[in-house]
């Protein structure tokens, strides 16, 4: 904080030159005494900052726990429960994923389907005669591209673009729903133009004959090498096979909640698609809940751990907010919930140890899901369920308006702000005190110096008169 290196008044440094007093040391000792209240305030601020860090971390972890609970309870909006989706998660498994696969969303139902891929979707493709040189002149004229969708594009070929490269660039820049490129087939006239539709499907046919005129028409002589085609999926929904077409290899809205992706045509192979509950996803979701719960409880437990060096616990040891959060959460864990066949978390492999930490026996959970996933769902999800009761508790603590943790965080921030203002005011007062001490000691030094000069003058005067 110092104004001094020795002590200064203006630009003059003093250190008891006239008086012989250790004025610098005296000022430092006085200031050290005056600074003790500031040190106490800074210590209090540091304590509050430590508490704030813990409260913010706990708030973050509690928010994560609430999110994990909402995922189980599938809270689409605060206060609104639609809890079937998480425990109705399905997965689709294909007996031959090289031929066809399927994905499902929350609206699908468990079932087994038989599928054949009759045909894959394809693009129309045309290829030209070959030329020997990329710079060879192709001739001029109008090149027309007509798609089966009715799209017509006329491309003017003139001296600026009548080489193979210029022709391809003109097509690609025309805005037509096709793409063109040059193929080198390694023959004596290797360079050929390939034009293909951007999209697949039977309505993506290409016609480059009608409307094309001039020398360019005869020079290239475009011919079809691949026809535009729809994909065909033969599906047995449980009655008989039905043929379904798609302009792409993806089939949506065929069966509610199911999307098929065809990968290879094979008319002789019937692929089985099994749609069933995704047990792995459910186990993962519950495991995430257990981890999030333990993160919260661990922070609270750390406050009770005594440092062997200081023999003190954490800054928030015994804090009523933390104690209340842990107690309320553990009460739900240990309570009987609902009236179904599963009324306690221990029945599905979740156990609470002496430290309040949860453990999950995944094998036991999978066994219960296999026996009756509906009973597990009813325990976890819905009004007054396991997840709902825990979520209600977390909401009480992390609500952004009046949550108990939020209130504590805001109060702690205010305390830190108040201390910072007090420290600033005390520092300013200390500066004033230092300036006053410097002026007072400087004045004292001047007085003593004046007295010493007067004494010296008087002594010289007396000596002079004595000699006369």
Structure description:
The protein has 468 residues and is an alpha+beta fold. It has three domains: 50-85 and 280-407, no CATH class; 90-121 and 230-277, no CATH class; 125-226, Sandwich (Immunoglobulin-like). Helix content is 44%, strand content 22%. The protein has helices spanning 23-73, 84-87, 164-172, 215-220, 279-302, 320-334, 362-380, 386-398, 404-467; strands spanning 8-9, 12-13, 75-77, 80-81, 90-94, 100-104, 111-119, 125-127, 141-147, 152-157, 178-184, 191-197, 206-207, 223-226, 231-236, 242-246, 250-255, 258-262, 266-277, 350-352, 358-360. The strands form seven sheets. The protein has a five-stranded antiparallel sheet with strand order 5-19-7-15-16, with no helix packed on it. Helix 1 packs antiparallel against helix 9 (404-467). The radius of gyration is 43 Å and the shape is flat. Residues 1-13 and 75-84 have low confidence and may be disordered.
């Amino acid at each position: 904080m110092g104004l001094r290196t020795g002590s200064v008044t203006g630009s003059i440094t003093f250190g008891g030159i006239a008086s012989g007093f250790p004025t610098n040391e005296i000022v430092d000792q006085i200031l050290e005494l005056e600074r003790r209240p500031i040190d106490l305030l800074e210590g209090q601020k540091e304590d509050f900052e430590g508490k704030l860090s813990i409260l913010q971390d706990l708030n973050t972890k509690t928010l994560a726990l609430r999110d994990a609970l909402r995922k189980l309870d599938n809270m689409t909006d605060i206060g609104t429960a639609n809890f079937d989706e998480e425990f109705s998660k399905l997965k689709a498994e294909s007996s031959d994923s090289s031929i066809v696969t399927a994905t499902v969303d929350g609206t699908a139902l468990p079932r087994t389907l038989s599928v054949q891929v009759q045909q894959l979707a394809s693009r129309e493709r045309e290829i030209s005669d070959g030329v020997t040189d990329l710079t060879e002149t192709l001739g001029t004229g109008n090149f027309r591209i007509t798609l089966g969708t009715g799209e017509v594009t006329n491309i003017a070929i003139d001296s600026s673009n009548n080489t193979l490269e210029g022709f391809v660039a003109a097509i690609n820049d025309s805005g037509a729903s096709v793409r063109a490129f040059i193929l080198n087939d390694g023959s004596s006239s290797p360079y050929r133009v390939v034009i293909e539709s951007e999209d697949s499907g039977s309505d993506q046919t290409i016609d480059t004959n009608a409307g094309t005129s001039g020398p360019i028409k005869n020079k290239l002589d475009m011919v079809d090498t691949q026809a535009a085609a729809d994909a065909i999926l033969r599906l047995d929904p449980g009655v008989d096979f039905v043929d379904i077409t798609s302009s792409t290899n993806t089939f949506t809205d065929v069966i509610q909640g199911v999307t098929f992706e065809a990968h290879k045509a094979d008319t002789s192979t019937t692929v089985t698609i099994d749609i069933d509950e995704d047990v792995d996803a459910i186990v993962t979701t519950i495991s995430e809940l257990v981890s999030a719960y333990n993160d919260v409880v661990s922070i609270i437990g750390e406050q009770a751990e005594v440092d062997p060096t200081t023999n003190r616990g954490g800054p928030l040891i015994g804090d009523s907010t933390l104690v209340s959060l842990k107690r309320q959460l553990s009460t739900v864990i240990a309570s009987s919930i609902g009236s179904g066949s599963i009324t306690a978390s221990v029945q599905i492999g979740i156990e609470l140890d002496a430290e309040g930490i949860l453990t999950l026996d995944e094998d036991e959970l999978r066994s219960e899901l296999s026996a009756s996933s509906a009973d597990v769902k009813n325990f976890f999800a819905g009004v007054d369920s396991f997840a709902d009761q825990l979520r209600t508790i977390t909401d009480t603590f992390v609500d952004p308006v009046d949550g108990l943790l939020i209130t504590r965080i805001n109060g702690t921030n205010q305390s830190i702000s108040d201390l910072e203002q007090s420290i600033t005011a005390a520092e300013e007062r200390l500066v004033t005190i230092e300036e006053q001490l410097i002026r007072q000691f400087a004045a004292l030094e001047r007085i003593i110096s004046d007295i010493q000069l007067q004494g010296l003058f008087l002594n010289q005067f007396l000596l002079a008169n004595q000699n006369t």
